[in-house]
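Researcher: I'm preparing a figure for a lab meeting and need a structural model of a single chain. I don't have an experimental structure, so a prediction will have to do for now. The sequence is pasted below. Please return the structure as tokens so I can convert it later.
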Amino acid sequence: MLDVRRLHMLKTVAARGSIAAAAQSLGLTAGAVSQQLSALRHDVGVDLLRPDGRTVALTEAGRVLLEHADRILAAVDEAESALAAVKGTVGATATLAALPSTVARIVAPALTALGSDHPQLAVTCLVTDQAQLRELTLGTVDVVLGQRYHHLPDTAPRGVEVAPLLDDPLVVVTAAGRGDGRPVALRELATHSLALPPPTTECGQAVLHACQQAGFTPAARYVTADIAAQLTLARAGLATALVPRTAIDPAAPGIRTAPIGDRPILRLLFAATRRTETANPTHTAVVAALRAAARSES
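Model: Understood. Here is the structure written out token by token.
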């Protein structure tokens, strides 16, 4: 009889690339994970992992078992959601992964509302830029507040349900007293000293794509993915920044924002959960709170 927990460990090791990384994400010791994987190997009678440099990789048997493990774990998730739906009540815990740029104006209001509507629900919030949807598929988190820029294809993994929340435009940020707040043509920024995210980031790619469509390649004076740093540079009059609207405190002093008038750069904020035939009431409540907070920003 295959042990579901061991199958989950195999899936986690395959995704993380090493037993040590998997153990850290599972809150276990590497020795404990190795012991459970050895027991799984004994159960099936064939090697499931092989060394691959400093990491490990699945053997052919491991790949076959992982394909079945994905379906088994999805069925377990489905069963848990169906039982929760029968009870019809919001549970006691949930884990949300969210982007740093969404905390102030989306996450904090949503969690405040959840605390009022469902006081028994304790939501753990992981604020991270890193691979949130992968964490969702691994079961590390229950709900993801993520982003996708509109010029990029939808790459949601299999088994993930995505609910759009808000089209969040990038705005032009300068020091207070510069400009008049009227829409800015993107081409005008060709002569500005710019503070932009690295071109390897989704936002950096979106800005580069839009600027090239406008007929120029932006030359960033300052390169940082830290939105607070971008705003500081803009406030000091050292640079013009392009920042998602909801990442800016509307009461922030010393800056002026203006919309892009001709070629808007939009990021789609979405809530994602694992796809199940029966909606989990707890996850549904978290998504509903995020949707309400996003609606107040539209």
